[in-house]
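Bumping with the actual sequence this time:
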Amino acid sequence: MAEQIVEFVSDGLKLIGTVSTPEGLSPDDKRPAFIVLHGFGSTRHAGNVVTPCAMLNKLGYVTLRFDMRGCGESEGERGRLICLEQVTDTRNALTMLQQHANIDPARIGVMGSSFGAAVAVYTAGSDKRVGACVSASGWGNGALKFEGQHSGPGEFERFKKMLADGKAHREKTGQAMMVSRYDIVPIPVHLRGNVLKGSIIDMPVDTAQSMYDFTAEDMIAEIAPRPVLLMHSAVDSVTPTVQTIRMFERSKSPTELHLFSGTDHFMFAEHNTRVHQVVTAWLEAFFPVSGEPAPMVAGH
């Protein structure tokens, strides 16, 4: 596998990424590719980004992983993570990747985990250049997601008060009110080791409001007839599993849904063999390195 650090511009900001190509690729080879998106306030070096990229490279795909604006080495206001801006970043990454000498510009998919999965679905639904979409531990309705994540007595009301307080603070001072990422997305202590060192901890309430308003589930039906793979832990300690089920219910063929026991929210980082087997088989059927995809049939 060969890696190359790349730069591209999104809304005037310089974003940094890594393009990885499979071993033995000749200068004339044209391969399908995947843009693999990182999660909430993370970077392109997270385990649930690096691990699927390595898997895809081994299977023969080119990959791009990049730091969203405000994250990692990319420019932008640190911690200000706005969903639709990340969609714009992903679309600009796609534009850049289409120029790569070893990539078939008509066969570029998007893959994401958690926050990145929601962005991947929305991008695929809104940009016909995306050839396929893989969502792992994702969400489609921000308001319902937060209601499920803040499910203890009075917790959701406190969360909504935080949103209101943030809006009032900005109106009064012109500045963003900062809060902990764990006040936005609670993560059990036993899973916090999966939050990459250097990930953003303090964020403006604007980030939470952006997520609350984001409804990737409204876009998923627009992806058809391009293939979609939806995956989620059967018992997810971070994002309610019903979020992915709702997206499946709103999708069109060809979409597959897989719920996994024995794994949790960070399924790609956990090196779960069954997860990798499902992804590999799905790629062979619907977005192969070479040859034609499987014939489409009625239903999901």
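The tokens above came from a reply further down the thread. Residues 50 and 153 are 38 Å apart (CA to CA).
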